[in-house]
UniProtKB/TrEMBL annotation, chain A:
UniProt record similarity statement: Belongs to the binding-protein-dependent transport system permease family. LivHM subfamily.
Gene Ontology MF, one: transmembrane transporter activity
InterPro entries: ABC_transp_permease, BCAA_transport_permease
UniProt entry tagged with the keyword Transport: yes
Protein name, entry field: Amino acid/amide ABC transporter membrane protein 1, HAAT family
Gene Ontology BP annotations: amino acid transport
Cellular localization per UniProt: Cell membrane
Main location: membrane
Membrane-spanning segments: 12-30, 60-80, 92-110, 140-159, 188-209, 221-249, 256-276
Membrane topology, from the record: Multi-pass membrane protein
Organism (species): Actinacidiphila bryophytorum
TrEMBL record, chain B:
Cellular component, GO, one term: plasma membrane
Organism this protein belongs to: Actinacidiphila bryophytorum
PANTHER family registered for this protein in UniProt: ABC TRANSPORTER ATP-BINDING PROTEIN (PTHR45772:SF3), CONSERVED COMPONENT OF ABC TRANSPORTER FOR NATURAL AMINO ACIDS-RELATED (PTHR45772)
Cleavable signal peptide: none
InterPro entries: AAA+_ATPase (IPR003593), ABC_AA/LPS_Transport (IPR051120), ABC_transporter-like_ATP-bd (IPR003439), BCA_ABC_TP_C (IPR032823), P-loop_NTPase (IPR027417)
Entry superkingdom: Bacteria
Residues in ABC transporter domain copies: 8-251
Record gene name: braF
The entry's keywords: ATP-binding, Nucleotide-binding, Transport
Protein name as catalogued: High-affinity branched-chain amino acid transport ATP-binding protein BraF
Molecular-function GO terms, alphabetical: ATP binding; ATP hydrolysis activity
PROSITE patterns the UniProt entry points to: ABC_TRANSPORTER_2 (PS50893)
């Protein structure tokens, strides 16, 4: 029983990363109809950002948590303005290729400068364990889970309880009607893209103290995240977060009980969801 | 052609799609306070013309003036804020959003007050738009359905809600793209009565296929054919024009 619960908790922690990354993808896809294939690379840049800030500037984890997502948000907005925006009027395939290309360029530049081995990051803000009643659990992992849950809930509230959220949701669902109301939908596109990228950066910084930081870390993770997004429903913010945590737990329990299936379970689930509900568990079919 | 009473005027307006001229040298003058119908067979360029007038498409050539302002290359949201509201040919609503919330969103977009533009403010601020939203809904007969999600309304009431949204923007010019398209007779009658009621104090330009509706509502009719203006005039006169009889009304009249 304890090992079951412990494994479930492991799943929630890896689900924290899936949820943050899928959330960023969902927000970007919702507003721009662009599937950002560079998302994994941006997560990797977030982790490297934390390492480089630590090694070269001597800045600790808390600084990284603040500065790296902010810097990536700016980089993301520049990327949207200078590149993505030029292709949005064309077939979505063009932005698929563009963002995939950006991911490859980022990975290779990092590999060129730092090699392909993992970089150590020893500036975790706290070590030790917390007593969760039935078992002890690393304090930092509990912190990651808490941050992820708080951020996901905050984004959810932002989208559903504030006017900016209403405008963003309206622009997402009916851009033409929203513009006919006199609302400039385009002014939200660039900030929303930057925000989605910042979420990837945040996940990267959170990963640095507990994951191997190397140029491939994003590429490895993002494939699962895309499966998460498909299962939750492309563009569904709620679905992405729920599916993120659920997939984390399914993988972890798979590890425990059916180790053979632990890696494939996600894709099996994705195939089943695509067969039964092509729009994803929480996605909407394309009509009103 | 353009005089003091003209609220909307186009000059030599053209739009090409990949070498095909969908709108060709259209000169249109809409008089303030009138209902002006655009008729013509499918493919005559009516909806393209609407999209040019509201900024959703840039023209290939020519110009558009609204209330003395050149709006030729303004984006849709700027044209909307100048006082031009439009409905869409295909029903366009937020499926999950409640009927009243639609109107509140339109009202707050319209609002010029400081609070109306502070996006970080709580949704609760929308409450102050609750009463005016209900007034607009009452005007189109939807007050009893205020809390229903728009996606669950029957077709005729969806179209009525779209009219309510256009009204909430308090436009000087109301552009309606086939307001009775796809409706049963009863809904058509209701919509005609509604438009007859809301037209007072407003200028309406409507694309419409139903000639009874055009005859009932329109002061002026412009017949379009292959992207060009065939004839413009009062309904009775246009109806008897030999070119129109031949090109469009032919089968009905003969």
């Amino acid at each position: 029983m304890t090992s079951f619960l412990q494994q479930l908790f492991n799943g929630l922690v890896s689900g924290s990363f899936y949820a943050l990354l899928a959330l960023g993808l969902a927000v970007i896809f919702g507003m721009l109809r662009v599937v950002n294939f560079a998302h994994g690379a941006l997560y990797m840049l977030g982790a490297f950002g934390a390492v480089v800030l630590g090694d070269d500037a001597g800045l600790g984890f808390w600084w990284a948590l603040l500065l790296v997502p902010a810097a990536l948000a700016v980089a993301g907005m520049a990327m949207e303005r200078l590149l993505v925006q030029r292709l949005t009027a064309l077939d979505p395939l063009y932005n698929f290729l563009l963002t995939f290309g950006i991911a490859l360029v980022c990975q290779d530049l990092l590999r060129m400068k730092y090699g392909s081995h993992s970089r150590p990051y020893d500036r975790a803000p706290f070590g030790g364990t917390v007593d969760l009643g039935l078992f002890d659990y690393p304090r930092y992992q509990v912190f990651v889970l808490a941050v992820s849950v708080v951020v996901c809930v905050a984004v959810w509230l932002l989208l559903t309880r504030t006017r900016i959220g209403t405008v963003v949701r309206a622009s997402t669902e009916r851009p033409e009607l929203t513009r006919a109301f006199g609302i400039d939908t385009r002014r939200w596109v660039t900030p929303v893209f930057g925000f989605g990228v910042a979420l990837a950066g945040l996940a990267g910084v959170l990963a640095a103290p507990m994951r191997a930081v190397n140029s491939d870390m994003g590429a490895d993770l993002i494939i699962t995240v895309f499966a998460v997004v498909v299962i939750g429903g492309l563009g569904s913010v709620f679905g992405s977060v729920v599916a993120g945590f659920a997939i984390g737990m399914i993988q972890a329990l798979g590890n425990l009980y059916v180790p053979v299936l632990s890696q494939t379970s996600v894709y099996l689930l994705m195939a089943v969801v695509l067969l039964v509900r092509p729009a994803g568990l929480f996605g909407k079919e394309e009509h009103a | 052609m353009e005089d003091a009473r003209t609220i909307l005027a186009t000059h030599n307006l053209c739009r090409d799609f990949h070498g095909f001229r969908a709108v060709n040298a259209v000169d249109l003058a809409v008089e303030e306070g009138t209902v002006h119908a655009l008729v013509g067979p499918n493919g005559a360029g009516k909806t393209t013309l609407f999209n040019l007038l509201t900024g959703f498409l840039p023209p290939t050539a020519g110009g558009i003036r609204f209330a003395g302002t050149d709006i030729t290359r303004l984006p849709p949201e700027r044209i909307a804020r100048l006082g031009v509201a439009r409905s869409f040919q295909v029903t366009s609503l937020f499926a999950q959003m409640a009927v009243r919330e639609h109107v509140e969103l339109a009202l707050q977009a319209r609002s010029r007050e400081k609070e109306g533009r502070r996006f970080w403010r709580s949704e609760r601020l929308m409450r102050r738009f609750e009463a005016p939203a209900m007034d607009v809904l009452a005007e189109v007969g939807l007050a009893g359905l205020a809390t229903r999600p728009a996606g669950s309304l029957p077709y005729g009431q969806k179209r009525a809600l779209e009219l309510a949204l256009a009204l909430a923007l308090e436009p000087r010019l109301l552009l309606l793209d086939e307001p009775t398209a796809g409706m049963g007779l009863e809904d058509v009658d209701r919509t005609v009565a509604l438009i007859a009621r809301i037209r007072s104090g407003r200028t309406v330009v409507m694309v419409e296929h139903n000639m009874t509706v055009v005859g009932t509502l329109a002061d002026t009719v412009t017949v379009l054919q292959r992207g060009e203006v065939l004839v413009t005039g009062p309904y009775r006169q246009v109806r008897q024009d030999p070119r129109v009889v031949e090109a469009y009304l032919g089968a009905d009249v003969a």
